[in-house]
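dumping this here so i dont lose it
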């Protein structure tokens, strides 16, 4: 049961992973109290401060909950948001069956595509859309969209507060997303976005850069999505058809 003192992975992270594994396997059940700090320190041959670091990490991840005077208990598995479905984030959030509020931070407006956009949008006329999604009144997602204004001409007439972009594309422009390219990175968030997400400046967040294609219309939409990962898990469902496509891409 000892931890690997020669590993580059800090001991508290090793312990957190051990505890997480016990919980995922059901060795420690939901609502069950985990062993005390003294018991864990003795079992793994480490100090109490290291144990406290490990449990602090799992508390921040929503795996454990401390109850004053009672101990530390296992919480139900965190909600899972399939953020990367082509159906869009609005559809993914609705599947949670929780109170979701989507706030349009500014009306969609035409701008000249900034230099950081993909080549197909950079320097062109694009619609910029920004919105903030809250779950149970807590901010979870900040999204910035840039849409090709030639393809989505007239977008300003739609109420994006209450309708999803994918729905509008399908019902009014007769376009269905055919594929998307996505990049993932953990970044330190800047002050403006931190304020919107109710985080401290420099806090780590998951950033997803997404280029959405509609058949022959390549990179018709570019999105940057900033995700708080301290309350929800963001995931992507991969089907066998996805894997087969990847295999054919490699073969080429």
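and the seq i came up w/
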């Amino acid at each position: 049961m000892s931890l690997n003192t020669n590993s580059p992975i800090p001991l508290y992270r090793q312990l957190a992973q051990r505890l997480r594994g016990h919980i995922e396997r059901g060795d420690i059940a939901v609502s069950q109290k985990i062993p005390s700090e003294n018991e864990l320190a003795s079992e793994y041959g480490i100090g109490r401060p290291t144990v406290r670091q490990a449990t602090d990490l799992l508390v921040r991840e929503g795996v454990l909950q401390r109850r004053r005077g009672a101990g530390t208990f296992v919480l139900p598995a965190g909600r899972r948001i399939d953020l990367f479905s082509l159906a869009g984030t609005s559809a993914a959030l609705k599947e949670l069956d929780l109170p979701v509020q989507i706030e349009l931070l500014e009306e969609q407006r035409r701008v000249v595509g900034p230099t950081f956009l993909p080549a197909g949008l950079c320097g062109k006329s694009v619609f910029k859309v920004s919105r903030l999604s809250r779950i149970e009144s807590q901010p979870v997602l900040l999204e910035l969209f840039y849409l090709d204004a030639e393809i989505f001409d007239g977008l300003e007439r739609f109420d994006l507060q209450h309708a999803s972009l994918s729905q509008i594309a399908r019902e009014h422009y007769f376009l269905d997303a055919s594929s998307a390219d996505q990049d993932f990175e953990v970044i330190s968030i800047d002050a403006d976005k931190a304020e919107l997400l109710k985080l401290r400046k420099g806090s780590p967040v998951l950033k997803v850069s997404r280029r959405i294609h509609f058949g022959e219309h390549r990179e018709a939409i570019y999105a940057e999505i900033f995700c708080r990962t301290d309350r929800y898990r963001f995931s992507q469902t991969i089907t066998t058809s996805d894997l087969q496509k990847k295999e054919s891409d490699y073969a080429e």
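The CA atoms of residues 113 and 121 lie 6 Å apart.
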